[in-house]
Amino acid sequence: MLGLIVTIIIVGLVAGLLARLIVPGKQDFSIGMTIVIGIIGSFVGGFLGYLFFRDDASDGFLQPSGIIGSIIGAIIVLLIWIRVGGRRSVTR
Prior knowledge:
Layout: H1 2-22, H2 31-53, H3 64-85
Helix pairs in contact: 1-2, 1-3, 2-3
Keywords: Cell membrane, Membrane, Transmembrane, Transmembrane helix
Transmembrane segments: 6-23, 35-53, 65-84
Family: Belongs to the UPF0410 family.
């Protein structure tokens, strides 16, 4: 169980960092927020992969296609976060 949690955190970090490198612009996120975006992106990528290919993680969780799906999902989550977060402004 601990190994699964560590793997999720590492894959989330890698996916989040790669998403931040791919998406243009400045993102002021901490490492923790980068990991969260990567983990959420992993779930989004896994869900989209299941919708398109009707395949699940029966062959194991750590696969190249899963990591690529995690990165794509993290990019989607990051773009949505930037789009929604950009609308928030404080008016006085």
